[in-house]
Description:
In chain B, helix 1 crosses helix 4. Helix content of chain B is 79%, strand content 0%. By secondary structure, chain B is an all-alpha fold. Chain B is built from eight helices and no strands. Chain B starts with 11 loop residues before the first helix and ends with a helix. Chain C has helices spanning 4-7, 11-43, 48-62, 66-80, 88-114, 117-125, 130-160, 172-183, 186-215. In chain C, helix 3 packs across helix 5 (88-114), helix 4 (66-80) crosses helix 5 and helix 7 (130-160) runs antiparallel to helix 9 (186-215). Chains in contact: A-B, B-C.
Amino acid sequence: MIITVEGLHKSFGKLEVLKGIDCAVAEGEVLCVIGPSGSGKSTFLRCLNFLESFKEGHVTISGHNLTGAKTNLNAVRRDVGMVFQSFNVFPHMKVIDNIMLAPMKVGKVSRADARSRGMALLEKVGLTNKADVYPSTLSGGQMQRVAIARALAMEPTVMLFDEPTSALDPETVGDVLDVMKKLAEEGMTMVVVTHEMGFAREVADRVLFMDAGLIVEEGTPAQIFESPQHARTQAFLSKLL
Amino acid sequence: MTLYFGDILPYLPVMLKALWVSIYVTLISFAAGGVLGIFIYLAKASRFKALQLVSNGYIEVIRNTPLLVQLYLIYFGLGSVGINFNPLWSVLIGMTLNNSAYTAEIFRAGISAVPKGLREAGTALGMPFHQTFTYVMLKPGIRNVLPALTNQFIVLFLFSSIGSVIALDELTSTLQNLNSQTLRTLEIFSVGAVLYFLTSAAIAFGSRITERLAFKW
Amino acid sequence: MVGLMDFVQYLPPLLRGAGLTLVICVAAGVLGSLIGVVFGTAKASPCFIARAISSLYVNFIRGVPILIILLFTYFALPLMLPALTFSRGFTAVVGLSVYSGAYMAEIVRGGIQAVPKGQSEAAEALGMHYFTRLRYVIFPQAMKIAVPPGIGFLIALVKASSLVSVIGFVDLTRAGRIVTTLNQEPLLTFLIVGALYFVISYPISLLGTWYERKLA
């Protein structure tokens, strides 16, 4: 298991957002997390690379124990890539520089190697012709693909996606999902918080339904979407599909 | 009442020299105050309550009392207990301390205006904080503060006229001297005002050009 | 070294000075706000001449030190209207009002331009013409936006008012100067003067913070 989560609890002040999450993800598996707003799915995802800290619970990811005494969080994040809902592309750097920055500064990769790696990744996401432009000229979908390439540049073993298409125009959603599909086919371990049920159905190996800080139901896409067992799962899906 | 500007033409060089005094006093105070301001901002943003308290107190006191009173305290007040600063040093110290409080606030506003997501993206890529700050937050932060810093520089330049009260040889005191010499009051003060205005306008213009050239994203 | 108790005798003149500072600041604040509303609206208007004239006034005054404005007012008023005599207080208020007017105008202009364009368009679509739109839709919203920077400027005005001491008006700063000639204690005296200015300014800044929090 490349990710194990045991008894994860997280509170913001008095508000308990995660009430005890247990989960495991195998290498190469694609896990989709669905659920209503406020269910804690994004918080759960952000705990996996410790962008959200937690005091109660145990998480190991890619061989790192997140709350271990000797754990270097920067080392964890080198192995875990994250794609955000609001892209967070660096506006003051050209696209290729966005991708090259972390490998050069954190990974100590040479400029030439970083550049060739970056161009290869841009080809993978279909944006080689945009290498030398500033992000302000790109559409949302293009920026998100740059963000994916930027995360992949660190050669992570796990990729976390936090509602990657929620902020996009419908026309560009497909481009981003195609890139994510390709990644899944290549065997990347992915945890995806999403509202795109079509994507979850088609690409996920397992689906988690979360509500009010707990995992209500989990199973294969067929199980969750065709025959949901719990009433809350049924209620949620009936509103969407 | 007739206006005759020709009489004061021979005094233009003197005025320009005095203008230069105003400018370099501003430059020094701006630079020194800026550096001091960075430290005060860091103290305010630090995790130590004592540092936060001291820096906040410093900023609030400076921002709620007039520069003139601060200047009197340095020139007359310290003088009465044996610490004597000449007019130039008094003005430099006063303007530097004054500027540092405002600069600290400008930095705080500029840094906090950088979207939180950029910082998270840097962290998620495995960059330690000092790298995230240098490569991801600094340039957008500077772009945020450039208009406010330009404004602060112009304000400081206009403040330099307060030096005239303790007989510093900057533009305003020179204007008052010329006034008592030539009695061409309106002409002298209007030319002086125009000199101040043109300098301020040039600074503002220069800043806009810099912004367009340096921050072309 | 004069003790704190001995200093008490000097408090009345300082407090009188503080009172006069408040008076001229309120007067200049009110006048400056009126001037600011007129010129700020003009600067934001679609009429080129209005914009040009107000830009001339606003941009010029904002590029000149307050001390120059006060000195100019002090010397120019008697020269322009030689038949009248002007009290120092009157000169101070006129000078500070001219100064405040320019800065308030910028704040008002900023407030007007910060109102979302959609508001004006919606009003126009309803058939209102410019002045009606301005009065009922734009202006109320603009004034709400302008309050925090307006309050910020009031504090700046209190501090700027200290310069009227240079033209001889006995405000808090001048009272401080006079007291120091009496007691030879500039350090203590000006610390008290500074404290009095702080007592005037700090509540105003707290008001501004409270108002901003109320908006959020």
